[in-house]
UniProtKB/TrEMBL annotation:
This is histidine kinase. Residues 259-311 form the HAMP domain. It comes from Billgrantia sulfidoxydans. It comes from the Bacteria. Signal peptide: none annotated.
Length: 545
């Protein structure tokens, strides 16, 4: 870890996340600016749609020789520079020209505040260009008066069609037979006298233009243009939507980064678990660089080294154990020859002691080979089927086997129901027999075996009335060749491998072995804890050494 911190790998990850955050905020700001720009352009185009449509229709209705004078007159009236241009003469880009050719309004605003509006004349290729420095009341009055005069030229259905043609969402136009509501008496008087009235609506940031339009029969109608609303600020709902999108993008970026790191770490975790369960041939697939890739390579190197060391250790133990059998056999053969050559009772007593030592040495070699066989199962164990085993039957067989060897002790199985567990019967019996034999070596008078069924496991307790195991030594006794210095000494026999073999057997079955004090007998209590279920298969060595 310190190496990764030292070479800045984690720092690069944090910097990547920070850059992703800044990039997301930058994209959000650009998105807001783009949205505002689109809204402004759309508002300008909608606002200019009706006036430019009216102007183009009026120009298109005039003869060619009258258009110049009319445009000059309207330019002075509206304070707008109006002119007709050919498409190739207009200062338009390719996309802008295509837009105008399709009959749409184009609004261009230069940096110096110069507005340029373009619209193609109906059924013609020429373009009407309007240049203005900004919107003012003079333009509003002139356009309203022009609209009124244009509507006054016709009556009835023709007037209604003209009215609908210039009405838009941004610039609503209405024609009514009743006087507009909301005007005071002074404004109504001015309106009846033919003046144009502009009504401000401060609460809505809008204004409405009213004027009278005479009809052919001498009556009048009332024309209302507006309300023309100012461009409102970006709605809060839109800002919240952009914020949600920004946070969503940020969350997605962080998720993708973290998911990639987590997936690679999960593979490391899975490989570590497989190695811990005994499959040291497991390796991690290194598919990328970075600190995770270096961790994977270091992990593979570590696993290979551990596998090699364990294999060498087990091969050495098996080789030494097998080699010991040959001199032991020669010593036993020589001892038997000496025994046959003499009848001296003293010599026979010495030979009997030597035979006991050879038997003990032979048993020690068997224990070493058993432990080595179990331990080597980590590297090259074979698959072994597990079956449903009756724990009480196994315990009864163990007691029947050991009771004649310990006539001074009372070995008993506590009453209870039949309990089955998914296990290998041979190795389960070996583990239970080792614990019962260990209890017999240290018990004063009683050894009790109790089998209980709990919610998720089966518990086999082996209790004795001996001196017990000190709390500080309860983990050390499961190490190979471990012995206690006080209560359980070498005088009690054993080789220090029995409990290690039990621990190995339990590990292969997915269980464990623990030791504590016996509440009933006062000595030690060893407990085998086995899971109630399983997959029916276990990695166990079945080939004898």
């Amino acid at each position: 870890m310190q190496r990764f911190l030292a070479d800045g790998s984690f720092l690069r990850v944090y910097l990547a996340l920070a850059l992703a955050l800044l990039l997301t905020f930058g994209l959000a700001l650009m998105g807001l600016a783009l949205v505002d720009r689109v809204r402004v352009e759309q508002y300008r185009e909608q606002l200019a749609e009706a006036p430019l449509q009216l102007l183009t229709w009026r120009v298109a209705a005039l003869p060619a020789h009258q258009r110049g004078d009319w445009l000059t007159q309207q330019s002075d009236l509206l304070n707008v520079r109006l002119s007709l241009r050919e498409p190739e003469d207009a200062e338009l880009g390719w996309f802008e020209r295509r837009r105008v050719e399709h009959g749409r309004v184009l609004v261009k605003v230069r940096e110096e505040g110069d507005w340029r509006l373009y619209r193609r004349l109906p059924r013609e290729a020429r373009i009407l260009e309007a240049r203005l420095s900004g919107l003012n009341e003079r333009q509003l009055r002139g356009l309203a008066q022009m609209l009124g005069d244009w509507l006054a030229e016709v009556n009835g259905e023709a007037r209604r069609r003209r009215l609908e043609s210039v009405t838009s969402e941004a610039l609503p136009v209405r024609l009514s037979d009743l006087a507009p509501e909301g005007l005071d008496s002074h404004q109504l008087t001015r309106l009846r006298d033919g003046e144009l009235v502009i009504r401000l609506m401060p609460g809505h940031w809008a204004l409405t233009v009213h004027l009278a339009v005479p009809a052919a029969d001498g009556s009048r109608q009332w024309l209302s243009i507006g309300p023309v609303s100012a461009l409102e600020p970006t709605p809060i709902s839109l800002l919240l939507l952009v914020l949600v999108i920004m946070l969503g993008v940020l969350a997605a970026i962080i998720y993708l980064i973290v998911r990639g790191v987590e997936a690679r770490l999960a593979r490391l975790e899975l490989a570590a678990g497989r190695i811990a369960s005994g499959r040291l041939d497991t390796r991690v697939k290194v598919d990328a660089g970075g600190f995770i890739g270096r961790v994977g390579m270091a992990f593979n190197a570590m696993a290979a080294q551990v596998q090699s060391l364990l294999r060498s250790q087990q091969e050495m133990i098996r080789a030494v154990s097998h080699e010991l059998r040959t001199p032991v056999a020669r010593i036993r053969f020589a001892m038997q020859m000496v025994e046959d050559m003499t009848d001296d009772p003293a010599i026979h007593r010495q030979l009997h002691g030597i035979d006991s030592d050879i038997e003990e040495l032979d048993q020690l070699i068997d224990e070493i080979l058993t432990y080595a066989r179990l331990d080597s199962g980590i590297v090259n164990g074979a698959e072994l089927e597990r079956t449903q085993v009756d724990c009480r039957a196994v315990a009864e067989r163990v007691i029947e086997t050991l009771a004649p060897l310990h006539a001074h002790l009372r070995l008993a199985l506590a009453p209870g129901d039949e309990v089955e567990v998914l296990a290998d019967p041979r190795y389960l019996q070996r583990a239970l027999q080792n614990l019962v034999a260990n209890a017999c070596r240290h018990a004063q008078s009683r050894v009790l075996v109790r089998i209980t069924l709990e919610s998720r496991l089966v518990r086999l307790d082996i209790e004795d009335d001996g001196p017990g195991v000190p709390a500080g030594e309860r983990q050390a006794i499961f190490k190979p060749f471990a012995r206690l210095d006080d209560s359980r000494t070498r005088r009690s026999g054993g080789y220090g491998l029995g409990l290690s073999i039990v621990q190995k057997v339990m590990a292969w079955h997915g269980g464990s072995v623990v030791v504590d004090d016996s509440q009933e007998l006062g000595g030690a209590r060893f407990s085998l804890l086995l899971p109630r279920g399983g997959n029916g298969r276990a990695k166990l060595p079945v080939k004898p050494a």
